[in-house]
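User:
I study polymers; will you set down one protein's sequence and backbone structure tokens?

Assistant:
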Amino acid sequence: MTNEIKSRVIGNLGHITLNRPKALNALTYAMCEEMTKLLLAWEADPKIGAVLVDGAGDRAFCAGGDVILLHDSGKVGDNRAEDFWRIEYALNELIHRYSKPYISLIDGIVMGGGVGLSVHGRLRVAGDDTLFAMPETGIGYFPDVGGSYFLPRLGMEIGQWLGLTGARLKTPLVCELGVANAYVPSADHAALIEALGKASLDGSDSAVANVMVKFVKSPPVGEGVPASVSAFGEKTVPAILRALDQDGSEWAQKQALSIRRKSPLACCVSFEALRRGAKMTFREAMTQELDISLNFLKTQDFYEGIRAQLIDKDRNPGWSHEDAASVQESHIQRLFRQTANPPQEFHP
């Protein structure tokens, strides 16, 4: 048991709350372990008809994982990083194949590990303050937690844009692009949970839908994605940058500047991971991601990115490559080497 997770059963609803509000509900090993136990127990319990997950506080659903732990583990060469990734990725897979309706209320910040706890579930409910991003290339890493599977399925151009730049999406775009598939105003979230707890949930989508229909509203309208996003359909990261430079629009210039600030190696590996992930099953993508993650522990950029962004906070990382054009194919491919047994798989 851990106090970093709160759980309760309300009628036929299993309710999990991520309970580290001061840390923006960032994931720990204990949280992944407790969530796994709860989900497995509730999947096997005929009295539980659906599961809902939200975050404590008013700032975040979940802002990611404990990357300082990953950094420190890699530095000393112990098993903490691998152990964390294994249980986190297995939890992502459990959510992806969960047999009962899995509802995530993704209000506030939902980034990194928080994306893995939400986007693979059946119902992703945005609120008024949803802020979605996969910002991993900025710390010399790649969009994991199933990002290599989920992002390209938003459309390759959209997926590569989000994966390479770490672009932050607010509620309108989150709903328009399909990251969320329902919008419920934040003020109604408590009432939605109460209504689900009073309903006769039987494990079917229709039973949940009968409740949701009373709360779901049309999402607010935003500016949409500029046509310039087509540049992200190019075949390499340098080609994407050339296309953005040639486009010349203010939006394109901002995206190019964003990519050039990120780790060139991480951007090239991310691009390749999404390209491969588009053709993989979820299980294959997660197995690939574990290999890539463990291989990143052997790179300069992983430690430099975390140091510059989160430890020293000087925002001046010393990347291993000057730019994306200097990243050779062999540098990319060695991040895809098989280094471990596949992630474990949880079954009820």
Summary: The radius of gyration is 20 Å. The chain has one domain: 5-336. DSSP finds 15 helices and ten strands in the chain. Residues 149 and 281 are 8 Å apart (CA to CA).
